[in-house]
Amino acid sequence: MLDAVFFNSKQNSLDLLDQTLLPGEIVTVRCFDEEQVADAIVSMKVRGAPAIGVAAAYGIALGLLNKANHQTSVADALNRVCKLLAGTRPTAVNLFWAIERVKKLVDQSAGNDFMAVAATALQEADRIKAQDIEMCRSIGRFGAEFLLDGQTWLTHCNAGALATAGYGTALGVFRAAKEQGKKFSVFIDETRPLLQGSRLTAWELLQENIDATLICDNMAGSLIRDGRVHGVVVGADRITSKGFVANKIGTYPLAVMAKYHGVPFYVAAPVSTFDLSLSYGDEIAIEERNHDELRFIGDKQTAPADIKVYNPAFDVTPPELITAIFTDRGVIRPIYKETIPAVIGAAEVFK
Ligand code: MRU
């Protein structure tokens, strides 16, 4: 299975498949400390909500290892490292969920032996990674029940193995359906500005031998209208207690079009993506990224250098546009404040 976030115990490094270079180049970047991990998250060498959580968890372990010879306490080092990693990207709650998990455990161990607490952090990061793969497989099994033989579905951005510890959430549904022997095809939204659909999802689905066709984002509406899409499935970066879903910019208009044309719109996400401390979509911090992401495609300038730009990386879809949420613990449908904890429980989710 594709392993885009790998802790290399021989080198004491976090090895990341550089997602900014895919599909043209397959390059692994090696991070030896928390600053390199933080930089990899900001620059999106590693991206996708669960994957950045896993990377940050390993980043804490590396940070503690590296602070061993500095004149500081474990508590102080831990706070600094966690603050750095938490400041990388604001929208995906999985990042904060993973950091909290590791931090709590290290805090509880209350030791001042850097090697020992780094080992504790590393074990927890390994657990988070292994659980994420299990959660994705489970999401895939629940979601694949909804994908019928002969159908064509549409997905946006990349919610695949690259965006998780492996297997994927939305793409996990396709992987599971394929494992069940179903025949189906997938339209992939290109996903401007950073092209996670054409660069990453297309690459992943080709490797899986899943019948996939690339479209640019503004083609989705007419395909849905023409009855050529039987279901839409996307991942999520944060889901509130009332079921508002933040995901890659362009998700909301897909949900509107799907609703208008009576096509089911599904979200696939693990429990680590739920943030029960928030109720409504406007409470979610939406990352605004560098304006050059719109003025350039790769190295090619495609807009005047001084044109004003607005570049939010995510949008929010309200629960009434979502047919169901596939989680690792079951399917939430319909989506209300009451149906969410009934499926996922409330114990482990971010709150
Ligand atoms: O900016 P990105 O590429 O990190 O955004 C990723 C998405 O929006 C994904 O759909 C989401 O994180 C779910 S990944 C399983």
Q: Class of the largest domain, according to the CATH hierarchy?
A: Alpha Beta
**Mean pLDDT across all residues, rounded?**
96
% residues in beta strands: 15-25%
CATH fold-level assignment of the largest domain: Rossmann fold
**Widest sheet, order of strands:** 6-5-4-7-10-15-16
Architecture per CATH nomenclature, i.e. the level-2 architecture of the largest domain: 3-Layer(aba) Sandwich
- The named CATH superfamily of the largest domain: Translation initiation factor eif-2b, domain 2
Structural class: alpha/beta
Name the ligand types.
Answer: 5-S-methyl-1-O-phosphono-5-thio-D-ribulose
**First-to-last CA distance:** 32 Å
Order of secondary-structure elements: EEEHHHHHEHEHEHEEEHEEHEEEEEH
Q: Find the count of extended strands (DSSP E, 2+ residues).
A: 16
Pick out the low-confidence regions: none
| Helix count, DSSP H or I runs of 4 or more residues | 11
Task: Provide a descriptive summary of the structure in words.
This protein has helices spanning 34-42, 49-66, 74-86, 93-109, 114-144, 170-179, 196-207, 220-225, 251-260, 292-295, 339-344, and strands at 5-8, 13-17, 28-31, 152-155, 185-189, 211-215, 231-234, 238-240, 245-248, 265-268, 274-275, 296-297, 300-301, 314-317, 324-327, 330-332. With 351 residues, the chain is α/β, with parallel strands linked by helices. It folds into 2 domains: 5-136, Four Helix Bundle (Hemerythrin (Met), subunit A) (Up-down Bundle), CATH 1.20.120; 141-348, Translation initiation factor eif-2b, domain 2 (Rossmann fold). The strands form 4 sheets. Strands 6-5-4-7-10-15-16 form a 7-stranded mixed beta sheet. α2 packs parallel to α4 and α4 (93-109) runs antiparallel to α5. It binds 5-S-methyl-1-O-phosphono-5-thio-D-ribulose. 5-S-methyl-1-O-phosphono-5-thio-D-ribulose (MRU) binds next to α2 and β9.
